[in-house]
């Protein structure tokens, strides 16, 4: 039933979370292992409790609640086998940046990005285009050799209803003229295109000169570009990536603008022992115990696109570009721009908490109460589609809103199997801010020193804990799996020694396929989390001499945990004993607008 027009969204019970999850982030949990030792306690008030929002109040610790009875009124055939397939309703602007598609219907997030993609498309396919019409909402071009070779190729693109997203409207004719790759001047390789292509090189080595970049472009893209144009593109890229202190001199005073703070033990620990998952604003991760692990910090005067691009560039310099990296952000446009510019191929997730709050301002109704959050908490794309279709049938405008304005990943059904973290909220950032909130009034240098001291204590405590453990898998993981393996109402029908069908006894009658050799289940929880789901547990425990810890991902190994905290965060004397600055200028505080750290 749809909500009445006079119902106030702020006071109703719509969009509560029907599948409550406790996405635990441990901050001061070490006491469970360090009896009698002092713990650096700082209370952490989780955002959901602090604001008492009904949407995300955890009520139980069910890990497989998405398959329980009574979740929603969606009808599913009892014996229907649920096999993985990709959900298609949430748009994603990810595309092959080395060969951008230009077929009709292709979308790009902005007109500028469309133009860069078109330049790359032309260079890749060895032709040049001539612009006939170009504005903020419309673009039309045809082949430059249209008159000479009678080439029929042309493209037309314009913005969609949101006045931002660009859609290719017409591109029906194939390109027929000869190659232009060997020309001395490739005009479609503009300074803006060069800027985008040399950023990766400059992030790795900011000292590269235009001559070296010219050579790299020729090696990668098989085109020769004039030195002066490469030089201009390099300057443009450096200005976007790195700080030029001359830009921040205001009325003759040099003012603080931004700072990046990282400790090498944190960086090395993240790369050596961690699931490749970062939560922003600060770059934070979780270890195998789901304990908070700060990786690095940024401080800047305001949340702008340039500042976030700069911060993410520093993060990339610090940790590189590990395969399978997932980055979780809130709904801020600037932070998402920074992530998109620097970590283009990373998996980009959006906080479900922020999505729901934004959604409630536009739409309401019981159908969303029943299905929106449920869709986010399903690992299986098939079940996600059931909830999505129910919402689309009831109110297409709402699902169109999600397509247009929430294009990052917010449902577990679309999470990749690489990083093994299934959080749908960006709760890490809130936990970190609450951990440090008591010290935010300190001067910046004192604040950074206090953070270093807190991390030093935390690293030492966790290193002590890791020394006490024996075996291969973290003890709390094994304990949890052993508990879950008891009283499972599941029937196992073996297909082979490694493959079985696992069916719920009574109730829904859902049937899932488990493959022990490939470490997969068609429910997808095992792939996304790295820990056997209840269907896999039922199969494993039905086999003689099978050990559960043989099927847990290495991210949850004790050795990985130890590697994360292996290095020492060094002790330091107090501020009065630090070396005196000899920079030759006085640094004034920033002219503040809105702060972020």
TrEMBL record:
Lyase is among the record's keywords: no
Listed Pfam families: DBD_Tnp_Mut (PF03108), MULE (PF10551), SWIM (PF04434)
Composition-biased stretches (Basic and acidic residues): 46-57
Record keyword Zinc-finger present: yes
Gene Ontology molecular function: zinc ion binding
UniProtKB keywords: Metal-binding, Zinc, Zinc-finger
Residue segments, region Disordered: 1-31, 44-73
Biased segments, Acidic residues type: 58-73
Residue ranges of coiled coil: none
InterPro entries, per the entry: MULE_transposase_dom, Transposase_MuDR, Znf_PMZ, Znf_SWIM
Domain spans labelled SWIM-type: 512-544
Protein name as it appears in the record: SWIM-type domain-containing protein
Taxonomic lineage from the root: Eukaryota, Viridiplantae, Streptophyta, Embryophyta, Tracheophyta
């Amino acid at each position: 039933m749809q909500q009445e027009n006079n119902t106030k969204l702020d006071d109703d019970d719509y969009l509560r979370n029907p599948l409550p999850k406790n996405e635990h982030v441990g901050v001061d949990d070490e006491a469970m292992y360090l009896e009698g030792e002092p713990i650096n306690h700082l209370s952490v008030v989780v955002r959901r409790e602090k604001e008492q929002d009904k949407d995300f109040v955890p009520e139980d610790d069910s890990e497989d609640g998405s398959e329980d009875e009574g979740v929603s009124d969606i009808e599913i055939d009892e014996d229907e086998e649920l096999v993985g397939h990709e959900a298609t309703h949430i748009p994603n602007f990810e595309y092959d940046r080395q060969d951008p598609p230009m077929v009709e219907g292709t979308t790009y997030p902005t007109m500028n990005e469309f133009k860069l993609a078109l330049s790359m498309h032309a260079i890749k396919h060895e032709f040049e285009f001539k612009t006939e019409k170009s504005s903020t909402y419309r673009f039309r071009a045809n082949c430059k050799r249209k008159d000479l070779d009678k080439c029929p190729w042309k493209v037309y693109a314009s913005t969609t209803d949101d006045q931002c997203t660009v859609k290719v409207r017409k591109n029906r004719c194939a390109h027929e003229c000869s190659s232009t790759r060997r020309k001395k001047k490739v005009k479609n390789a503009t300074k803006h295109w060069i800027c985008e292509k040399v950023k990766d090189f400059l992030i790795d080595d900011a000292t590269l000169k235009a001559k070296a970049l010219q050579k790299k472009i020729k090696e990668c893209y098989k085109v020769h570009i004039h030195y002066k144009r490469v030089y201009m593109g390099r300057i443009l890229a450096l200005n976007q990536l790195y700080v030029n202190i001359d830009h921040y001199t205001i009325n003759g005073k040099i003012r603080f603008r931004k700072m990046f703070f990282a400790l090498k033990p944190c960086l090395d620990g993240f790369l050596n022992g961690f699931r490749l998952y970062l939560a922003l604003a600060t770059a934070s991760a979780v270890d195998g115990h789901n304990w908070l692990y700060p990786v690095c910090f940024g401080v800047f005067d305001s949340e702008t696109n340039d500042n976030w691009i700069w911060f993410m560039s520093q993060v990339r310099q610090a940790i590189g570009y590990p395969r399978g990296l997932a980055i979780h952000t809130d709904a801020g446009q600037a932070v998402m721009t920074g992530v998109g510019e620097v970590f283009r191929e990373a998996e980009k997730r959006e906080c479900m908490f922020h999505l729901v709050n934004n959604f409630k301002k536009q739409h309401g109704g019981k159908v969303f109460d029943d299905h929106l959050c449920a869709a986010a908490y399903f690992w299986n794309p098939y079940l996600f589609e059931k909830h999505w279709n129910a919402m689309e049938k009831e109110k297409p405008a709402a699902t169109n809103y999600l397509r247009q304005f929430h294009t990052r990943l917010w449902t577990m059904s679309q999470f990749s199997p690489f990083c093994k973290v299934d959080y749908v909220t960006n709760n890490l950032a809130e936990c970190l801010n609450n951990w440090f909130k008591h010290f935010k009034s300190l001067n910046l240098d004192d604040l950074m020193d206090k953070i270093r001291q807190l991390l030093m204590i935390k690293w030492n405590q966790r290193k002590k804990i890791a020394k006490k453990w024996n075996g291969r898998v973290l003890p709390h993981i094994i304990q949890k799996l052993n508990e879950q393996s008891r009283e499972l109402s599941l029937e196992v029908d073996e297909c082979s020694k490694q493959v079985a069908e696992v069916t719920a006894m009574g109730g829904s009658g859902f049937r899932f396929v488990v493959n022990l050799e490939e470490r997969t289940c068609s429910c997808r929880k095992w792939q996304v989390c790295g820990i056997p789901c209840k269907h896999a547990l039922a199969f494993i425990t039905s086999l003689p001499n099978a050990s559960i810890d043989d099927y847990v991902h290495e991210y949850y190994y004790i050795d990985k945990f130890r590697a994360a905290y292996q290095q020492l965060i060094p002790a330091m004397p107090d501020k009065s004993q630090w070396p005196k600055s000899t920079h030759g200028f006085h640094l004034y505080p920033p002219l503040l607008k809105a702060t972020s750290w």
